[in-house]
Amino acid sequence: MKPATIAALVTLGVAAIVLIAVIVSSITRVNDDEACQIFYQDGNRIITKETSGIVFLGPGAQKFCLSRATQHLIFEEEQTGLQSTIEARSVEGLTLTLELDIEFRYIPERIAETVLRVGYDRPEDRLLRTARAEVRNVASQFGVTEFLTGSRASIALAIQQRLQTVLREQDGVFVSIIQVNLLHIQVYTPFEQKFQEVEDRRLAQIVASENVTLIEIEENRELETASIAAEANRNKLLREAMSRTVTAELEQQRLMTEARTAAQQAQIQAESDRIGRLIRARTQLDETIARREFLVQQVHREASANQTLSETERQNVVVRAEGEVRRALANRTRDVQLALTNQTRAVEALVSSAINSTLQVFRTQLQSNFTAAATELRGRGRAADIRADTRAHAAEYIALQRSLNLTDRELASVLLYRGLQRRTDSGNLSVLFNYAKQPFNFLELGDRPVPVSTATTASTTPAQQQQQPQQQPAGN
Questions:
Q1: How far apart are CA 196 and CA 187, in angstroms?
Q2: DSSP structural state of residue 459
Q3: Mean pLDDT of the chain
Q4: Could you please report the per-residue DSSP string of 15-54?
Q5: Which domain covers residue 161, as residue numbers?
Q6: Which of 166, 187, 208 is the last residue of a domain?
Q7: CA distance 365 to 232
Q8: Are residues 165 and 61 in the same domain?
Q9: What residues have CB less than 8 Å from 472, skipping those under 6 apart?
Q10: pLDDT tens, residue by residue, 378-420
Q11: Is residue 218 domain-resident?
Q12: What are the φ/ψ torsions at residue 268 (nearest 5 degrees)?
C-alpha cells in the first residue's frame, strides 16, 4: 500500500477512536437516588432529570445532582460550626442546649426551584442555618418544664411543622421534613436541680397518695372477696338443692320410663309371636302348594318327554330309511361315474399318445428343416456381405485375387471361412459355426474348394423361434 493511503487510514482510525472516546465521555447516568440538572454551554440550556436513566451530555456539558435519598441534619456536641449544639431560650428566658437529628428528603419534581436557593456547593448549609434559627424560635414558645417533663414529642412535631412551612413557603427550598428527633436537652443547672427536688417531693406525695389508694383498694378487694365468697356459698347450696330436686325428678322419670318400656316390650313380644305363628302357617301352606305344583309339573314333563322321545325315535327311523335309500342311489351313481371316468381316461390316454407321437415327428421335421434353411440363408447372406465389402476395396481385392490366382468364388469362400472364424471367436453371431482350424496354404487351392467343417451348432433367439414357421420350406 502507498504511504499516503496508510497515513489516511491511520488518521481515520485515530479520528474514530477520538470520536468513540468523546461519545463515551459524553454519556452519563442518573442514578435511582439522584435528581440532576445538566448545563449546556450552547445557548446556556438547562435540562432537569428527575428520574434515573442514561443522559447524553455532549461536549462542554456539566451535570450537577442532588440526592433523593433520606438525609440527616445532625446537631451534636461533638460537631463544630453549623452542626454544633443549638443554644436556645425557653419562654421563661432560661438557657437550653439542644441536640437534634432532622431527617429530610429533597422533592425531585421541584429540584430546579430548590437548586436556585441552595446551589450545588454544600446545599445543606442553607438548611442548617434555617434549621438552627427555627429551632430557637420554636423552643422559645415552650416552657422549661415542658422540656423536662416528657413533652418532647409535641416539641419535635412543632419543630417539624415549622421547618416544613419556612423552608417551602419562605425560603423556596422544597424538601420534605420526615422526622425531628430530640437527642438531648440540657437546661440551666441550678434550675434543673431545684426542679429535680420539686419533682422528688411531688413524686413522694404521689407515692404516698398511691399507697393510701392501694390500702383502700386492698380493703375493698377483701370486702368484695368476702361478699363474693358468701354469694358463691349461697349459690352452691342452691345448686345442691336444685341438683337433689333434679335427681329425684330424673329417678321418677326413669322408673316411669322403665315401666312404660316393659309394657311396650310385652306388647311387642306378643305381637311378634302372633306374627311368627301366622308366618309359619303361611310358609307351610306355600310349601304344600309348591310341592303339589312341582309334582304336577314333573308329571307333565315326564309325559311331554316320553311323547317327544317317541316322536324323535319315529323320525330317526324315517331318516335312517331315507338315508339307506339315498346311499344306495349314490353308490349306484358313483359306480356308473367311475366306469365312465375310467373309459374316458383310457380314450384320452390313447388320443394323447397319438398326438404326442404326431407332435414329436412334426417337431423333429420342423427343427431339421429350419436348421438347414437357416444355415443356407445365413451362409449366403454372409458371402454376399463379404463380397460387397471386398468389392468396396477394389484395389486390395484385385491385388489379392491376382496374387492368389483365384476365381471370385474361390476367393469368396476363403474370405467367408476366415471371417466366420473371427466372428465366432468374438461371440457376436446368434448362429455359431464351429469350423475346424486347419492350416491354410494358398498354393494348394487351385480350382479346389476350400475345406470347411460341416459340423454346426445352431442356437436361436426367441425372435427367430417365432419366425421359424415362416422360414419353413413349402415342401414340408
A1: 12
A2: -
A3: 76
A4: HHHHHHHHHHHTEEEE-TTEEEEEEETTTTEEEEE-S-EE
A5: 70-187
A6: 187
A7: 153
A8: no
A9: 366, 369, 370, 373
A10: 878 887 887 776 667 667 767 777 888 878 777 777 777 766 6
A11: no
A12: -65, -40
Domain boundary among 128, 153, 187: 187
**Mean pLDDT for the stretch of residues 31-56:** 62
Contact in structure between 73 and 104 (CB atoms under 8 Å): yes
The distance of Cα 359 from the centroid of its chain, to the nearest Å, equals 82
- How far apart, in whole angstroms, are the C-alpha atoms of residue 398 and residue 390? 9
Q: For 115, phi and psi rounded to 5 degrees? A: -65, -35
What's the pLDDT tens digit per position in 403-414? 888 787 777 777
Q: Do 51 and 106 lie in a common domain?
A: no
Q: What is the pLDDT of residue 467?
A: 46
With cell 454376399, the residue in question is: 384
Q: Are residues 49 and 155 in the same domain?
A: no
C-alpha distances out from residue 198 to 142, 145, 201, 202, Å: 20, 11, 5, 6
* Same domain for 439 and 412: yes
**Identity (one letter) of the amino acid at 47?**
I
The answer to whether position 285 is within a domain reads: no
Alpha carbons 68 and 111: distance in angstroms, whole number: 10
Residue whose C-alpha cell reads 302357617 in the numeric block: 281
149 assigned to some structural domain: yes
74 and 61 in a single domain? The answer is no
> What one-character DSSP code corresponds to residue 474?
T
148 and 163 belong to one structural domain: yes
**Which position has the grid cell 422360414?**
471
Grid cell listed for 115: 437548586
3-state helix, strand, coil in the chain (%, to 5): 70, 15, 20
Task: Kindly state whether residues 60 and 80 are assigned to the same domain.
Answer: no
Which string of b and e fits 63-101 if b means at least 16 CB within 10 Å?
A: bebbebeebebebeeeeeebbebbebebeeebebebbbe
The rounded distance, in Å, linking the Cα atoms of 455 and 445 is 22
Please report, for the domain that includes residue 161, its CATH number: 3.30.479.30
Give me the number of domains the chain comprises. Answer: 3
Grid coordinates in use for 359?
407332435
Domain check: are 387 and 465 in the same one? yes
Using only the alpha carbons of the chain, give its radius of gyration.
74
Structure-block grid coordinates of residue 67: 440526592
Please give the model's pTM, rounded to 2 decimal places: 0.38
pLDDT score of 470: 45
* Distance in angstroms (rounded) separating the CA atoms of residues 60 and 50: 21
Q: Residue 57 burial (CB < 10 Å; 0-12/13-18/19+)?
A: middle
- Could you tell me if residue 216 is inside a domain? no
